[in-house]
Amino acid sequence: MIAAPGALRCADVGRSDGDMGPSNMPSFGAPTRIKNIVTIQGVRANQLVGYGLVIGLNGTGDSLRNSPFTDQSIQAMLDRMGVNIRRQNTRTRNSAAVIVTAELPPFVQTGATIDVTVSSLGDATSLLGGTLIMTPLNGPDQLVYGVAQGPVTVSGYQITGAAQTVTQNVPTSGRIPNGALIERESPGIFAAAEVIGLALRNPDFSTAIRVSDAINSYGLDRFGVQIANAGDLRSIAVKRPPSMSATRLMAEIGELIVEPDVPARVVVDERTGTIVIGRDVQISTVAVTHGNLTVTVTETPQVSQPLPFSEGQTVVTPETDISTYEQGGTLRIVRGTSLHVLVRGLNMMGLKPQGIIAVLQTIKTSGALQAELVVQ
């Protein structure tokens, strides 16, 4: 069965698009591994940032008059190399000041390499062909965790002519794959932790209890004791048995299967007309009508030409035609005891996405929508 354009669809794997009766109602459960719905507290990436210079540009770098910090950086770099140009008037356009950013992964070791992003800070038009010179990368504690250097890979370009400029993507930003060398390990005590904290990606009390119960069932089978305790809707504390390492414990816990609970929520994106309805959304019995009033204004100018040799003037007379059309609005009863019944009822009204959005917002205002309505 092919749905009409703009109709709501229920996406279920392994079912046909026939009517959903009591005998063939699909299972809404979505079991997943614990590792897919939780993160480990304290195990996270850290942001690094640095200031550096990109050299070797083909005349597309910063103009030193408009970017004085680039001129100062060039002078400071050459001073460290024994070259004094303090009193010289440099006019190079082959250098650009850049901000270098990177993400320090957890548990990374000294000597490893990570990717970095290079972004222009001045008025350079392109970083294509440039090379980043040695740039320290600092963390929030102002300590140096890595050093970046290497040729910049730019996916965009800019070609400028006398009367036209062609630009593809963003030529003033690029990346250096494996461009930063790690000089300091990120702090962490995961291996020696006696209690491991798990945080749910989508906080929910029911999901937290289900995760805790699954881990306790595993603990009883494996160690004879319960090892998990749900603290709130977001966090679960797991006590590590002395006979097992934290790494192996998390590897085995991550493979346990649970069914996360999903709150009753309707998400609406008015810009694109996208509507996502959760499985537990229900609508109390309401009567709904929806009609659209269209007003069309047509301007048809009429030109009046004077007779030959009459010394008259051409006159343009405006003529306006206004017509109105109101789409018929049939009063329908909509009730939603399940997701499929709700979707079928809304589709029967024959509304386009914008009309469905307006109806859902009005039903929420009336108090009949038993769910959270999120409008983006």
Automatic annotation (TrEMBL):
The text of the family note is:
Belongs to the FlgI family.
Biological process terms from the Gene Ontology for this record are: bacterial-type flagellum-dependent cell motility
Sum up the protein's function in the record's words. Assembles around the rod to form the L-ring and probably protects the motor/basal body from shearing forces during rotation.
Family matches, as InterPro entries: Flag_FlgI (IPR001782)
Assembly, per entry: The basal body constitutes a major portion of the flagellar organelle and consists of four rings (L,P,S, and M) mounted on a central rod.
Q: According to its UniProt record, where is this protein located?
A: Bacterial flagellum basal body
The principal location of this protein is other
Keywords, sorted A to Z: Bacterial flagellum, Cell projection, Cilium, Flagellum, Periplasm, Signal
Q: What Gene Ontology cellular-component terms does the record carry?
A: bacterial-type flagellum basal body, distal rod, P ring; outer membrane-bounded periplasmic space
The protein's name is: Flagellar P-ring protein
Question: Which terms does the record give in the GO molecular function aspect?
Answer: structural molecule activity
